[in-house]
Design brief:
By secondary structure, this protein is an alpha+beta fold. The chain contains nine helices and 21 strands. The chain starts with 7 loop residues before the first strand and ends in a 12-residue tail after the last strand.
């Protein structure tokens, strides 16, 4: 039996300055996490930075990431280049605007000086937009004889224009909570399938003090049409123009921006998707954890929860009417020592 290659760490820099920059980077991170024999290990906060090299272009959002992989470094490079192509990278000119840029910065125990790849990256120690995010996840990493954190204190680096971005910095920023029957039914005619006190208590305990995200039908079905108490209520709807007590978002781009602002103002808040069916469908690709109340039997339903493809059952607790289940996204699995599960 062929022995598996040992996992090692690669540090990356990601940047985008065209289109929906933050979501493009998050999608790149999601695709990096899906590379075979690879685990997305760490992601730095996102930074807003001025253009580099060619100044007559929009500003960038930049971040850094660390992965653990068993792939040879050139094979991993080719995977990131494939992701760039699939996300529409355009390279019309050197240092010009691009949809997404993924650079390999350094690789644990490896160096490269071939035409296709230079490691460490030749410009790593010259750019604040590379060094600042990298410091957040690997400040002690030694490059060219000095830790990344020390490079960040160089006068030439400190004078470069850079600031934390008002963007969500997680590729899967959301959590989901729902109660379903054995046919994945969610509700009927705007109402829950069943009134289960234990489920309602669990919902309250998990979402209290947090941010809850819902669709228009869910919002207007709340008692008195009022927001849920003790929570920040966000509605994703193209048709609503005003709803007192709710934060309205017209589309996903608007949602990410407003959630980013909430995260900056209220660090530590969790973002919970609470329904209905269409919002679950839209937001499921951005969910890392799903808390499901699984009810026994089937009920009359006109709304259903999409299948949790790409998730694994991480825990289950029995209750009288069914069970409480916790599902985690598979491509976020990692061992505590940083190696691939």
């Amino acid at each position: 039996m062929k022995e598996q290659a040992a996992a090692y760490t690669i540090w990356l820099s990601l940047g985008a300055n065209l289109g929906s920059r933050g979501e493009t980077i998050r999608e790149a991170l999601r695709q990096i996490a899906a590379i075979p024999a690879t685990c997305l290990w760490q992601v730095a906060p996102f930074y807003e930075t001025a253009p580099w090299g060619k100044l007559d272009q929009p500003g960038f959002i930049n971040t850094a990431a660390a992965v653990r992989t068993r792939l040879p470094v050139l094979a991993f490079l080719h995977e990131t280049q494939r992701i760039e192509r699939e996300l529409g990278r355009v390279r019309h000119e050197h240092w010009g605007a691009r949809t997404i840029d993924i650079d390999l910065l350094a690789a644990e125990g490896q160096q490269s000086d071939c035409e296709e790849l230079q490691l460490p990256h030749p410009y790593l120690t010259e750019r604040a937009f590379v060094l600042y995010p990298l410091r957040d996840i690997a400040g002690s990493l030694v490059v060219k004889g000095k830790p990344v954190a020390a490079w960040c204190e160089e006068p030439a680096i400190k004078e470069q224009e850079i600031s934390l971005a008002a963007e969500l910095d997680s590729p899967w920023p959301l959590q989901l909570i729902a109660a379903i029957d054995e046919n994945r039914g969610l509700g009927c005619k705007g109402r829950l399938l069943a009134h289960v006190p234990a489920d309602l208590a669990r919902f309250k305990a998990l979402t209290a003090g947090q941010v809850v995200i819902m669709g228009r039908k869910t919002a207007v079905s709340l008692p008195g049409g009022a927001p849920l108490k003790g929570r920040m209520n966000v509605v994703l709807s193209r048709s609503l123009l005003d709803l007192p007590g709710f934060i309205l978002c017209r589309d996903l781009t608007d949602l990410w921006q407003k959630l980013g602002e909430l995260k900056r103002k209220h660090p530590g808040k969790q973002f919970w998707c609470i329904g209905g069916g269409e919002v679950y469908r839209q937001l499921l690709p951005y969910v890392r954890r799903a808390e499901i109340t699984q009810l026994r039997g089937g009920f009359e339903a006109d709304t259903w929860l999409p299948e949790l493809l790409g998730f694994r059952l991480a825990g289950e607790e029995e209750m009288a009417q069914g069970s409480f289940q916790c599902w985690l996204r598979i491509n976020r699995e990692r061992k505590d020592d940083g190696n691939i599960s």
